[in-house]
Every structure is written in structure tokens, then in C-alpha cells.
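ok posting inputs for the adenosine-5'-triphosphate job
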Amino acid sequence: MAKREQICLEARGLTKVFGFGRNKTVAVDHVDLTLYEGEVVSIVGESGSGKTTLAKILLGLINETEGEVYFQGQKRDIRSYRQKQEYWKNIQAIFQDPFSSYNIFNKIDSVLLDCIHMRGGRRLPYEKKVELMAEACRFVNLKFEELTNKYPFELSGGQMQRLMIARIFLLKPRILVADEPTSMIDACSRATILDMLMQLRNEIGMTVIFITHDIGLAYYVSDTVYIMERGRFVESGSADKVILTPSHPYTKRLISDVPKIYEEWDLSTV
Amino acid sequence: MGKVILEVRELTTKYVTRFREDVYAVDHVSLKVEEGKSLGIAGESGCGKSTLALSLMGYYFPPLHYISGDIIIDGKNISGMKPDDVRKSILGREIAYIPQAAMNALNPTQKVIHFIEDVVQAHDPTKSKKDIYEMARALFESVGLPASVLQKYPVELSGGMKQRTVIAVAVILGPKVLIADEPSSALDVTSQKMVIKMLRDLMESGFIKAMIFITHELPLLYNVTDDIMVMYAGQIVEKGTAREAVFDPLHPYAKGLMGSIIVPEEGLRSAKLTAIPGVPPNLKKPPAGCRFADRCKYVRPECRVTSIAMREVGEGRMYRCVMSEKELREAYQNG
Ligand SMILES: Nc1ncnc2c1ncn2[C@@H]1O[C@H](COP(=O)(O)OP(=O)(O)OP(=O)(O)O)[C@@H](O)[C@H]1O
Ligand SMILES: Nc1ncnc2c1ncn2[C@@H]1O[C@H](COP(=O)(O)OP(=O)(O)O)[C@@H](O)[C@H]1O
Ligand code: SF4
Ligand SMILES: [Mg+2]
Ligand SMILES: [Mg+2]
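and the output
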């Protein structure tokens, strides 16, 4: 558990509205969030609750309609491309469907090479770059020699997510946003991916925002949990408090609807 | 012991790829499901769960090929039948199948009632639309689906509603056996629960007599099925009651799977997940001995020599390993 000392990222009144008139959707609705240095925070909600939209605002990939983001105590200003580039050295993401977030026509080595360049390693000798890429691949149990000249779509879902973790290994951001990083892979490979993520986090001291619809997973990985329903946070607190003694009816329902192994799963309540 | 509704003996099937390579995805699989019972199939991606589901229907078309074995539904062996006869008299009536991601494959330009008319009239062209409507309405209402759904297009239905509709269409002819491949994996927890409730209602009312349920999520299987089989690289490696498979697995792979369970229950945070290192073997050239050998921490030289037989321990309980039950239990106790 991280010591809650230094605030790393803060959101105040964040709101995102898509469309207008009859087609208006308030995807994120006046959300406040405080992220402390080194902690793992989960955002849990059902499909369409606004998790990915919030993640994209925090990442600076889409603009908020209303509200502010503070990064390391300063109001975030990423209006120019140069400012964005600077911001992205600090905050990076792994997405649910890695195939959609990557230019699939970029070979795998160039995906990794880009990371080295982003960290200012453009001028390094090529052998040094290969060494760094091989080290990142070793970390996630992939063989760099077998990946060169391959395209991302030639990898399995689990290998692809490991490649995404290798990227983060090279980029070493302060904050990682992991949006459903294991929802496309089976329960068995999920443990491997989570292990690697948490090991990386310990190694480089990252702060992690973990987004998931799986409340058990959130309980397992996080210090703090936020529960999101229709764009709003309805409950938040330490993982133990939120999962073991939930107070909001929505949280209670999410927990009771998950099949468990020690407690009975009550089907009469649907 | 109840009446056996589905019995499969040593079923072996393969895919033949574009490059004429054989992929042995279902290798000598045997199973039995009694009336009123459900069987769960667990295993990681690519182990052959979906292929087994497809193979169980006895209806083969390229790239999938039948090699050997028997499929006996309620006393009738369908494995030697011609594909056309299987399609006409078996599918939908004796055995129904809900493919993985079926709900995303519905023709968007047809109303739900039209899917049902197609299914029913393929078996009984004389049945009137009015009779079919009545039949569908009765079934929908009995499983808590509003009859108004019949007049809707797939896009007008939410994910959970669409999946329950797919199930209703699949079972409209009252099949003896239902095979459901990951029917709730893409849904939110609440919709998932409604899908499971519907399947249970169909079983309890006797509308379907036996069910095979496939998923890689063990806590779900544990809550849904009576028995569980664990599949690894095309073979069954463990079979027992749901309780045995989850709380007392014998095969080292099944044991490993239990270590990947994540549930929002006290104690989970302190229990460390155990990842199984490595990847499954290539099914184009599976290893001669135990298929799990490369990932097993108890591997010995004799594991790699010839194929490993199933061992029976107690009624209906089996596992595929060279180690005896006693040896395995000792090994687990010592961590
Ligand atoms: N059409 C096909 N042609 C050739 N090989 C195939 C084909 N479909 C599946 N396979 C192979 O058969 C094996 C079993 O596949 P199957 O889809 O049954 O696994 P699964 O356990 O259901 O996996 P998942 O959970 O990912 O769907 C895999 O090695 C797969 O690559
Ligand atoms: N680009 C967009 N245009 C219009 N509506 C959108 C867009 N992206 C998301 N939404 C809507 O915003 C809501 C939240 O979506 P999303 O952030 O994707 O949720 P989640 O990730 O929790 O599934 C949904 O109602 C969705 O339909
Ligand atoms: S047969 Fe050998 S390698 Fe296979 S599971 Fe048993 S001990 Fe492990
Ligand atoms: Mg999302
Ligand atoms: Mg499958």
C-alpha cells in the first residue's frame, strides 16, 4: 500500500458531453479524483459507464467539456502539440484491445524503437537500442529475436498485451492507465499479465489507474477503488472498505452479481 | 445413476488447414451427461473447447473432419450419419448449439420471430406462422422474456437481451442437449446472471434435458454446472464434480488453473495468484508424452515417453498424469 503523501494527478469536476439535443450523452459527469504518488487506483463500472472516456481525458487524448486536471500540483495545459508530447512522457496507457490502439502496419521492433526515441534515445548506437529492446522483451517473457520483422497482428492476445507491457517498461512513465488490459484474454493468461504489470510497477514506482468491469480484479490489484455508474462516481474508498463493506446499492449489486466460490451466488435476485 | 442423455466415446476430430496441415484439437475425448445434469468445460484459449462443442454435434464440414469415436444421444449413435441427415433430424431437435459470439452474428435485417420461423419450418414446413408465434410466445414468457421481443430487430436489443434471445431461438424445438460456448463472457455481470438464470430455468422445467457449458471462468462454471472437465491441448486432463475440480483438483494443470481464480471475496487480496509459466504446445505436432510436460513443475523423464492414460479415482473422477493421487497430494502439500 502506497503512503498517501504526494498527490500526483487530480481531477475536479471533469465532464464530457458527446452530441447535443436529443442525442446528447453525458459520458462523464462532474467527476473528482485524487491520485497519490505510487498507488494503484481502480475505476470499476459496467459497459457504457464512462470509464474509457474518463481515461482518455486523463490521458489528454480527448478534451474535457468542463472541469480541470492538475498534474503534480499544476493545472494541466496541453493545448500545443509540444506540451502534449511532454505530458505523454509522464502518462501512458495500455488498452483493452491492443490491436485497435496500434498502427498494425508498424512492425513490432518499430513499436519498441519508438519508445526508446520518445525517451530521448534517438542518438544511441543501434546495438544499444537492440540491447534495450531485448531487455524489455525479456521482462515480459518474449524473445526479441522472434519478434523482429513481425507485425502485431501475428501475435496472440496474451503476447500482444505482454508487448504493450514491454513498451511501458521502456517508456517508464510516472502514471500508467491500464484500460481493461486483461478482458480479452483468458483467466489463465490473466494471472501472468497481472503479475508482470505489478512487478513493473514496483520496479519503476509507477502510479496506476486500472480500469475494469471486473470488481474481483479491482479488489485484487488496487489500493483504492472508485465505482462508476452512468458517468458518476457513486462510491470510493480503500479496496477493503468498498468491496467488503459496500454502502451504495449499485456497488452492492455489482458485488452480488459476480459468481463466487465461497459464498452462494443467489440467482433469485435477477 | 440417472439416465444417460449424452455419451461420447473416444471422439477424435481434426482441422485440416489451407496448407494441408493437421491440427488435432479434439483427441480421444469421452464424456457422459445424465438427465437433468450439466457438464462444464474449462481450459485456456486455444485448448479446443469450441472445437469440441462443434464436434459434439456430429455435423462436420471443412476445415473440421471427423476421425473416430462415437456420439450417442439418448441411446442413438449419430457419429456414422450423413451430414444431411444430421442437419435435418438431429440439429436443433436432439442437440442444439450456441456458438461463441453468436449474438453478434444475427442477421440485422430480420426480426426475431423470423429467425424462429426459419428454424421451425426447416423441420416442419407444414407448421403455420400463427402456431409458431404461439409456440415462441409461450417459450419466451416461460423464461421471462417479453413477447414484444419477437417483433424486434437484433439492433433494438441490449447485449443481455440479445443473448437470451439467441438461446431461446436455439432451443425452440426442445432439444435434449444444449451446448453453450461462452454464452455470457461478453456481458456485464448483471446480464450474465440473467443468462445463467434462463439456462437454469430451461433445465429445471425439463425443456432441455442436459447441458454442456463452456467457459474459461472457473467461478462461473462452479456455480452453473454439476460436473467440470478441464481440457488441455485437445485432451481432457481432469474430470470430477464442480466442487472437486475447484477445491481439490488433482492434475497439475487443473491445480494451476485454480490459482488463477479471482473473486471479490475476503482473503483474495492476500492469496497470491499463481501464473502457469509458458504456453501450450503446438497442436500440429503435439509432444509424444504428457502435453503439459513443458510447463509442469513435477515433470519426470517417464512423462515424455508415451501418451499418458487417464486414471480413475472414485466414481466419475479422473485425471491424466503419471503421478498417483497420493504422490500428487503430497507434492501439493509441500508447495
Ligand atoms: N478453422 C480452423 N482451422 C485450423 N485450425 C483451427 C481452426 N479453428 C481453430 N483451430 C485451432 O484449433 C485449436 C482449438 O481451437 P478452439 O477455437 O477450439 O479453442 P478454444 O479453446 O475454444 O479457444 P478460445 O477460448 O480462444 O476460443 C487451436 O489450436 C486453433 O488454433
Ligand atoms: N465518440 C463518442 N460519441 C458519442 N458517444 C460516445 C462516444 N464515446 C463514448 N460515447 C458514449 O459515452 C458513454 C460512455 O462510454 P465509454 O467511455 O466508452 O464507457 P466504457 O468504457 O465504460 O464502456 C456511452 O454511453 C457511450 O455510448
Ligand atoms: S504426467 Fe508428468 S508432466 Fe504431465 S502433469 Fe503429470 S507430472 Fe506433470
Ligand atoms: Mg471501455
Ligand atoms: Mg472458444
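notes: Residues B 49-50, 100, 181 surround magnesium ion (ligand 5) (CB under 6 Å). The radius of gyration of chain A is 19 Å.
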